[in-house]
């Protein structure tokens, strides 16, 4: 292993230990143990229904919204248990932002879309909110495009711009981790490229975890790749986890190779 | 013999158009007829004067005021409770015994004829609580009458808000209340407002329930405890007892214009609230 991988390994941002996730009697994730390095992009790949999104949603406890969901095992963010007894979900979600599959912009102005998070966290000062809006929109290279139309409706933007607005909205609460759940799957190739460039830039400061069906995308942007697979028992498990380059050049396992070369999935 | 699908399609199209057109013609005919018969008698005096000789001459100012007061009381009481219940049903619970009882009650209440609300209001507010025939009794009765509508329309509006809005708000660290207030409510306001407008229209137009609870006084109501008559009730007496068909039509025309105005103003208000975000 090269020095880079070792260095990031020491710097684990998120850790899971034997995590099992159940939706009622359905066993969705089985014994997932891995570490996600800080300030890098980790891609979760695998066939549909293998629990990629469920795994991603463990990190910001979005599975809590599903009434029958139950988590066993440990998830750590900065070595602090995410599912601990006195864990604060609100501050967890402030540290772990999420961008969804569809650009779900609220039917409000661009500005109101951006500042909804900071407002949730009690920031009221107009000047402060305006600064946040400018900073977040600049981070996603949208500022120049919308700075004169901040009061225009968010849903009026092009789809690609909307998704960048959603990323800016997530960044506005100053998270440490950004979870992206197939965030490019609704975008055209050009917008996808822009978002990918953005990811590469953002990883200087943020830990990014993406779920993607797009193998080329995983290769283009990710540093680490986690291949998930459903077993005979319908339980999603982490099948192989390594540096992306290594996985795509020398997959350890036949199943991984079959998947990433497009033989199934 | 088989009819070719394209012909079937054409026949269906003609029938659907015919149905829509006849409804439109009937509606427009009724409205135009009433406006035509009533408008000539609407003037400043009619709007501002009190009724003289039982409404044979003079104006209908007390009835206009009575309509506004009774409807306002109903809306002020029913809307907060209705919207609150709707949010409780849509956001805070999943199907359990309590929600089933609330939904079943709301549906049953919505199907009850208004005169039954009138009878209830008469027995409970007017007699038992001793509020007498009054603006308050009438307003409370109407509040009960429109509550199911407010609950149902608001709940439907809340349920049509995409779940992704809630997810986004939660993912940004929003609490349940923040999510409801900032992400769900602004998207549901249009539907909620439509339900409120519909309910307000029903209040303004209601007769049976108001006669039994607000009374039919011709004087200007001076407080919530004064008896009053609404425009719909006034119209009813003018026409029923043959006092003055001209003034009856004028009152009806005014009622139609008022409902029209409520719709326009309310829609403008909603659109302006929405425009901040759209």
Helix content of chain B: over 70%
Approximate shape of chain B: globular
Question: Largest inter-chain interface?
Answer: A-B, 32 and 23 residues
Radius of gyration of chain A from the CA trace? 18 Å
Any idea what the CATH architecture of the domain at 3-102 and 178-260 in chain A is?
3-Layer(aba) Sandwich
Spans where pLDDT lies below 50 across 5 or more residues of chain B: none
The CATH topology annotation of chain B reads as MetI-like fold
Q: How many strand segments of chain A? A: 10
General description of the model:
The complex is a heterodimer of chains A (265) and B (278). Chain A contains 11 helices and 10 strands. Chain A is α/β, with parallel strands linked by helices. In chain A, helix 4 (110-120) crosses helix 5 and helix 4 runs parallel beside helix 7 (159-171). In chain A, 45% of the residues are buried. With 278 residues, chain B is an all-alpha fold. Chain B has a single domain, classed as MetI-like (MetI-like fold, Orthogonal Bundle). In chain B, 77% of the residues lie in helices and 1% in strands. In chain B, strands 1-2 form a two-stranded antiparallel ribbon. In chain B, strand 1 and strand 2 form a beta hairpin. The longest helix of chain B is centred in the first third of the chain and has 34 residues, at 5-38. The termini of chain B are far apart. The model of chain B has no long low-confidence stretch (mean pLDDT 88). At the A-B interface, helix 3, helix 4 and helix 7 of A face helix 7 and helix 8 of B.
Fold blueprint:
The complex is a heterodimer of chains A (265) and B (278).
Chain A: H1 3-10, E1 12-23, E2 26-37, E3 41-45, H2 52-56, E4 69-77, E5 80-81, H3 89-95, E6 96-99, H4 110-120, H5 126-139, H6 143-146, H7 159-171, E7 177-181, H8 189-202, E8 207-211, H9 215-221, E9 224-230, E10 236-243, H10 244-249, H11 254-260
Parallel strand pairs in A: 3-8, 3-9, 6-7, 7-8
Antiparallel strand pairs in A: 1-2, 1-4, 4-5, 9-10
Chain B: H1 5-38, H2 44-48, E1 51-52, E2 57-58, H3 61-92, H4 97-111, H5 114-128, H6 135-159, H7 163-171, H8 176-205, H9 208-214, H10 231-240, H11 245-275
């Amino acid at each position: 292993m090269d020095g880079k991988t070792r260095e990031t390994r020491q710097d684990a941002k998120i850790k899971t230990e034997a995590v099992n996730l159940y939706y009622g009697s359905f066993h969705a994730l089985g014994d997932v143990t891995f570490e996600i390095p800080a300030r890098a992009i980790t891609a979760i790949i695998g066939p549909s229904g293998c629990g990629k999104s469920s795994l991603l949603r463990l990190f910001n406890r979005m599975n809590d919204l599903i009434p029958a969901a139950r988590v066993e095992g440990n998830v750590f963010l900065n070595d602090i248990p995410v599912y601990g007894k006195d864990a604060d979900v609100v501050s967890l979600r402030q540290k772990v932002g999420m961008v969804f599959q569809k650009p779900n912009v609220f039917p409000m102005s661009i500005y109101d879309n951006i500042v909804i998070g900071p407002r949730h966290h009690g920031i009221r000062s107009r000047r402060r909110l305006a600064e946040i809006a400018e900073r977040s929109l600049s981070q996603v290279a949208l500022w120049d495009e919308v700075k004169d139309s901040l009061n225009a409706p968010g849903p009026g933007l092009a789809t690609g711009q909307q998704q960048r607005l959603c990323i800016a909205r997530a960044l506005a609460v100053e998270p440490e981790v950004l979870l992206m759940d197939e965030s490019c799957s609704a975008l055209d190739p050009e917008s996808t490229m822009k978002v990918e460039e953005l990811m590469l830039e953002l990883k200087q400061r943020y830990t990014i975890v993406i779920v993607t069906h797009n193998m080329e995308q995983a290769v283009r942007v990710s540093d680490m790749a986690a291949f998930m697979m459903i077993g005979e028992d319908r339980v999603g498990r982490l099948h192989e986890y390594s540096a992306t380059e290594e996985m795509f050049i020398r997959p350890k396992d036949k199943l991984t190779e079959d998947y990433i070369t497009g033989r199934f999935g | 013999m088989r009819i070719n699908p394209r012909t079937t399609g054409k026949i269906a199209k003609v029938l659907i158009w015919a149905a829509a057109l006849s409804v439109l013609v009937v509606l427009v005919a009724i409205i135009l007829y009433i406006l035509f018969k009533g408008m000539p008698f609407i003037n400043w005096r009619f709007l501002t004067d009190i009724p003289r000789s039982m409404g044979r001459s003079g104006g209908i100012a007390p009835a206009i005021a009575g309509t506004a007061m009774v409807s306002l009381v109903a809306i002020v009481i029913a809307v907060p409770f209705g919207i609150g219940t709707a949010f409780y049903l849509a956001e805070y619970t999943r199907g359990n015994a309590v929600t089933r009882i609330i939904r079943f009650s709301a549906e049953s209440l919505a199907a009850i004829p208004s005169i039954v609300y009138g009878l209830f209001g008469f027995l409970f507010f007017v007699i038992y609580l001793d509020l007498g025939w009054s603006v308050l009794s009438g307003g409370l009765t109407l509040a009960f009458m429109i509550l199911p509508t407010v609950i149902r329309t608001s709940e439907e509006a809340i349920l049509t808000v995409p779940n992704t809005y809630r997810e986004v708000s939660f993912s940004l660290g929003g609490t349940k209340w923040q999510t409801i207030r900032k992400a769900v409510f602004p998207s549901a306001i249009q539907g909620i407002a439509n339900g409120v407008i519909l309910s307000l229209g029903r209040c303004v137009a209601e007769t049976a329930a108001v006669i039994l609870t607000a009374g039919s006084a011709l004087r200007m109501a001076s407080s919530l405890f004064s008896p009053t008559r609404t425009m719909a009730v006034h119209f009813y007496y003018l026409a029923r007892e043959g006092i003055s068909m001209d003034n009856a039509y004028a009152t009806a025309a005014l009622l139609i214009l008022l409902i029209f105005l409520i719709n326009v103003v309310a829609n403008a208000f909603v659109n302006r609230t929405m425009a901040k975000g759209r």
